[in-house]
Design brief:
single chain, mainly alpha, two-stranded antiparallel ribbon, 8% strand, globular, binds zinc ion, zinc, Znf_NHR/GATA, metal-binding, DNA gyrase inhibitor YacG
Length: 80
């Protein structure tokens, strides 16, 4: 039996298993959004980062911002 959880950031279904490295998040990106790790490094994003106060629309615009940021930074963002 497989447990499916919802990504807290984007509500996507995530399999709760070893395969899902970032569970309960669907991806590292969503994990970072939730933690707000990257927010200190960028002044470009004006959306409030208080966890739990984001609306779905906020989250979507955040993801768009991050994708724009990723497009500029590419490799560096995901380096471990
Ligand atoms: Zn997600």
């Amino acid at each position: 039996m497989t447990t499916i959880v919802k990504c807290p950031t984007c509500q996507k279904s995530v399999e709760w298993s070893e395969k899902s490295e970032f569970r309960p998040f669907c991806s590292k990106r969503c994990q970072l959004i939730d933690l707000g790790d990257w927010s200190d490094e960028s002044n470009k994003i004006s959306t409030p980062m208080k966890s739990g106060e984001l609306t779905q629309q906020d989250t979507e615009s955040l993801i768009e911002d991050i994708e724009a940021m990723l497009a500029k930074n590419d490799d560096s963002f995901f380096k471990e």
